[in-house]
Structure formats: structure tokens, C-alpha cells
Amino acid sequence: MHAPAPTQYLVTSPAFFRGLEQLIASHPIEHWRAYLRFSTVSFMAPFLGQPFVEERFDFVGRTLSGTQQIQPRWRRCSINADADLGEAVGQAYVAKYFSPESKERMLQMVNAIKNALNADIDAASWMSSQTKQLAHVKLAAEVDKIAYPDQWRNYSSLEISRSDFLGNVERSAAFEINHRIAKFGKAADRHEWGMSPPTVNAYEDAQTNTINFPAGILQPPFFDAAQVDAVNYGAIGAVIGHEITHGYDDQGRKFDADGNLRDWWAPTDSANYDDRDKCITDEYTQDVPEAGIKQNGKLSAGEDTADNGGVHLTLAGLENTLKSQGKDLDTPAPDGLTQLQNFFLAYANVWCGENRPEAARTAVMTQGHSLNRYRVNNVVGNMSEFAHAFGCHAGQAMVHANACRVW
Q1: Structural domains of the chain ordered from first start
Q2: Would you say 261 and 10 are in contact if contact means Cβ atoms under 8 Å apart?
Q3: At what angle do helices 73-84 and 165-181 cross, to 10 degrees?
Q4: Which of 27, 71, 94, 311 could form a disulfide with 31 if both were Cys (CB 3.0 to 4.6 A apart)?
């Protein structure tokens, strides 16, 4: 791959390499040749002829995920164009679908939520002043990447042919690998994007202390420039709060303001955090009937903590924004509902969706996000503001007797 020789190696998962060494020693070379041939064909199958495409979909799509029908070719082609030429596609996308005014409105929302977290840090009775100070430093150092990068990638050296799909994929992969290898020995660029602008997703990166919101997710129902603040705060605002909270959840809190893996918490603060977070892990250790299994709350702890904290912080940000407009959470909105009701309805609306049982089971067993209905019901059941908004009272299903909260 023509990578420069490194001066040192950072091995983050030594147990993996020990296990791999055992596997290499315990299987004949013929097995490894067969495995590597299979891995190569399996990875390349979506870019080969129709029999390969159908065979891979039958296993990965139908068997593992329960998907009944492969996506049409035009959609698969657009996905590949976005994956390999993301910022070229992104330039065209934002020119059509995301205005500078919308970006400014998003930045204002981000600042309101960060201000709410600063206030929450100050008010935390379970955190020492020393840890609070470092938490403020980390939040101030956060880079907020919203909608699209300030500098676009240059793809002029990449050859794309209308008659060579597989070659396009291979050349694009080489282009990306060379782009990454060129970073060797250089300082990390915290402003480089890891998602293309049309992507419907968002993430927090602990190693760069950034939050990342592509323009693709900044569309209805998550963000709608025609809607009142309460709706946008409840929808995309809750996702912003979620990602910001990741910097201070069970994993993100292990990284400092510069993205270094360093324990900056006082021991008593860490113990207090764990005590509060146990309430959440216990709550989410629950039966999931639609998947036919029980969820492990420790597996989903970070995401569940971020869901709960994100909504609290975003609601506080909305309350301060409304206050600056001479309103409060109980002020009627144009649709006749209160601002608070609009907030919670928008939050629930963005998680509307359905999983096939196979996909639900795989998700609960293998990855850290709770299924959508629990991302809504468990969160709002922990909030007195939700009970106030809809007149719920103690003893009802949506009012938890033991309301969990970290942030």
C-alpha cells in the first residue's frame, strides 16, 4: 500500500491480535486462502454481475435483516456515488436543499444547547469544581460541523468512467486510501468531515471533540425552516443534544478537550456518575417483545444516556430561546398546542418507524442503540415536563416512579 514506515504502533485491541494469532496458527493455509477469496468476492459482489448481487442480497438482506426486496438500481447507484464522491455530490445537494439562512439557524440552536449544558454542569451537585472546570474547557473546545465543510475535496485526479463500474469503485477506494496515507506524520485535521453532506445521520467524535451534522439530516422531519422553534428543537435539537452529551457519557467522558484518552474526572465524580448511570442501565435492561429477546442496558448505556440528557438540555435551550422572545413553554403555538407539547410531539415524530423482527433482534443483540419506541417512551417517562405537558399523573405508564437522569 506504499504506506510510510511508522515510528510507533498504537495497538488499541491487543486481545484481538492475540486471538487472531491463535487462529492463524490453528488453521491450514488453504482455509485462509478460501476465507480471503470469499471475503473479497462478498465485499465486491454488489459491484459485479446480477447473480452475485442477488446471492449477496439473499443472505445479507433477507436472512440477516428480513428485507424482502432489493433497492432499485438507481438508488444503489446514488448510494455508491455518495460513498465514493461524497463531497462532489454534496456541493450540488446543499446548493439545492440547504440555504445559508438555515445553517445560521442551526448554529444558533447548537449554541443554545451548549449554553444549557454549561448551566447544567454548574448546577450538578454530584460533580466537583475541578471536574466542572475541565468539562467547561472541553465544551468550549468542541468543533461544531454543521451541514457541509468550509473546504471541499478535490476529485480531479480520480478517473470515473461510464463503462467501468467495478473499476470506478476500485479507483475510488485507492483514491481514499491514498488520501488517508498522505496524513501520516501530520497533525489531525479536526475540521475534516467523515460523512458526506447528503447523509441522513449525525455523530460525535471523541478523538477530535467534534459534533457532525450533515445537511442530509437537516431536512423535514428533523429540521424544517418553516416550523416554529419548538418543533425544530424537539426534532433535530434533541439529536444535537444527544451528540453533545456523548462527550460526557460513559465512553466520551474518557477523552479530554483535545481528544486524548485521559481520565480528567476526580475519582468521586466518576463514582457519582456511575451511580446515576446505573439507573439508566437498569431501566433499559428490559424485555423487547418485538425482537423476542431481552435488552442488555449496559450495551446501550452510552446511547440511552445521550438520549435522556440530550432531550433535557435541548428543552432547556428552547426555554431560554423562548424567554428571549417573551414566551415560555406553556405559550400557545400557531397550531393551538403549547410550545412544550409541540416539542415532545416533534421528538416522538422523528423516531416513527418500523423494524422487521429479524432486524430488531439483530440490532438489540449487536449494537448500542435502543429500538425507536424505547428511545421515545423511556426518555419522556423520566421527565416531569412531559407529564406537565399532557396532564399525566403518578401511577400512569408514562410517569416513571424512579426517574433516571445523569445530564
Answers
A1: 99-148+193-390 (3.40.390.10)
A2: no
A3: 20
A4: 27
Sequence letter at residue 355: N
- How far apart CA 265 and CA 359 sit, in angstroms, is 38
Half-sphere exposure at residue 49, Cβ-oriented, CA atoms within 13 angstroms: 1
| Cα dihedral sign, 172-175-179-181 | positive
C-alpha cell recorded at residue 174: 485507492
Active site residues: 243, 307
Cis geometry, peptide bond prior to residue 357 (ω within 30 degrees of 0) = no
- All three cell numbers of 324: 428571549
CB 333 within 8 A of CB 228: yes
- Distance (Å, whole) CA 274 – CA 259: 22
Q: What is the pLDDT of residues 24-83, one digit of tens each?
A: 999 999 999 999 999 999 999 999 999 999 999 999 898 888 888 999 999 999 999 999
Tens of pLDDT, residue by residue over 126-172, are: 999 999 999 999 999 999 999 999 999 999 999 999 999 999 999 99
Angle (CA) 94 95 100, round 5°: 75
